[in-house]
UniProtKB/TrEMBL annotation:
<dbReference type="GO" id="GO:0006797">
    <property type="term" value="P:polyphosphate metabolic process"/>
</dbReference>
<dbReference type="InterPro" id="IPR022488">
    <property type="entry name" value="PPK2-related"/>
</dbReference>
<feature type="domain" description="Polyphosphate kinase-2-related">
    <location>
        <begin position="40"/>
        <end position="264"/>
    </location>
</feature>
<dbReference type="InterPro" id="IPR022300">
    <property type="entry name" value="PPK2-rel_1"/>
</dbReference>
<dbReference type="GO" id="GO:0016776">
    <property type="term" value="F:phosphotransferase activity, phosphate group as acceptor"/>
</dbReference>
<feature type="compositionally biased region" description="Basic residues">
    <location>
        <begin position="304"/>
        <end position="317"/>
    </location>
</feature>
<feature type="compositionally biased region" description="Low complexity">
    <location>
        <begin position="286"/>
        <end position="303"/>
    </location>
</feature>
<feature type="region of interest" description="Disordered">
    <location>
        <begin position="286"/>
        <end position="317"/>
    </location>
</feature>
<protein>
    <recommendedName>
        <fullName>Polyphosphate kinase-2-related domain-containing protein</fullName>
    </recommendedName>
</protein>
<dbReference type="Pfam" id="PF03976">
    <property type="entry name" value="PPK2"/>
</dbReference>
<dbReference type="InterPro" id="IPR027417">
    <property type="entry name" value="P-loop_NTPase"/>
</dbReference>
Amino acid sequence: MGKKKAKGTTTTAAQAVRIGDGFRLADVDAAATPGWTGDRAQAEARTQELGREMSELQERLFAHGRTGGTQAVLLVLQGLDTSGKGGVVRHVIGMVDPQGVALASFGVPTAEELRHHYLWRIRRALPPPGRIGVFDRSHYEDVLVVRVDELVPRETWEQRYDEINRFERQTAERGIRIIKVALVVSEAEQYARLRERLERPDKHWKYNPSDLATRKRWPLYRDAYQDVFDRTSTDLAPWHVVPADRKWYARLAVSELLVEALRDLQLDWPVADYDVAAELAKLDATAPAGSASASGATTSSPKASKKAGKKSGKKKK
């Protein structure tokens, strides 16, 4: 599938939100929409368009995983409370077949997890071939929360940056494409979202009193995230910092990042490892009397015909 730019965009999300040399988190405008000049309605329409393409590309990936392929995709979502991680999972990942998704959330480690190396629970959750893995929070909690809350000595979390880089390199070498996204909200927007959670009974379950303790450490988290970006954004696993005050933009940006990653895999439909003509003949031998197949015609589903047309580049008349 060829790449195309939608009305309202000046560049791709991958180009606009991928961090480069000299990146400073403090300079990010959380209400900005880098790479997008259209309005919300146009962005939401574009997201739906991307979702349709994402769905087919994911099905190709899933098909390859079922037929011996080794590739997978991993979306790593980081961000402070209310940054919209759950919304991305619901509205972006929700556009594809759930059987092709491996979702993992990483909160406070359990007693069992604490008995192991901090990457133990992460390795166990890596997506198998053919899946899109999604980490709602991730191994980066072990250089963010543990640092800000002083849960381990500095010398312990300091060495983890290099460990994480090695781990991600090994993961990429296994055929897992890593997309790292940090969703950034402003202090004002976080305040508004937390207040909404307290004012609406249907959102009380989302609120935790510890959210305020985290909010008071905003400058410490900003510094911790800056070090994460400086020390773990690599060619194999670069960071993408997505302004998230406008939820619709964040979902658009992540959708485009996922679609571009899936396109780059350049997967076609797997070739059958059996004689298709012979299997059709066997199937037709079981057709009910009087059916089209029984009279010698070959049938196919509308969905299969549509996909075959896309593959050949010919339009059906």
